[in-house]
Amino acid sequence: MDTINRLLKKQPPKRGRRAIVDLAESGQEDEPEIEKANPLYVRYTQNANGTRLAIPEEWLGAPVGSVFAGAVPAAVSSRPYSGRMVEEVS
Predict the structure, then answer these.
(1) How many structural domains compose the chain?
(2) Tens digit of pLDDT for each residue in 36-70?
(3) 8 vs 73, which has greater pLDDT?
(4) What's the number of CA atoms in the CB half-sphere (13 Å) around residue 61?
(5) Is residue 59 part of a domain?
């Protein structure tokens, strides 16, 4: 009967083995900490809505942060897009 009850009991979510051991020892589930991304990398996303470049907050305080701060100038071309992958400009 005990085996059946254990099998019918709701299973915990899949986590790392260490998190399950910590949960079993403490007896209660703590609020999960928000995991921050590695500050060495940027995230580049390109989709139908446009292109985005996400940089870490640590970069904004550094000298390189001045490149990413401020408004983005609109690039206006005198010629319309030709549809070619490589365009020769003279």
Answers:
(1) 1
(2) 888 888 888 888 888 888 888 888 888 888 888 77
(3) 8
(4) 4
(5) yes
User: Strand locations in 38-81, DSSP E?
Assistant: 43-47, 50-54
Taking residue 20's Cβ as centre, other Cβ atoms within 10 Å add up to 13
The residue type of 52 is R
Residue 86, domain member (yes or no): no
CA angle at 51 for the pair 46 and 53, rounded to the nearest 5°: 100
Cα–Cα distance for residue pair 51/44, rounded to 1 Å: 7
* Containing structural domain, residue 41: 36-67
From residue 88, how far is each of 76, 77, 84 by CA, in Å?
A: 17, 14, 10
Assigned domain for 60 exists: yes
- Both tokens of 70, joined, read 């401020």
Q: How far is residue 22's CA from residue 32's CA, in Å, rounded to a whole number?
A: 12
Give bridge partners of residue 52 from the DSSP assignment: 45
| Calpha distance 45→87 (Å, rounded) | 24
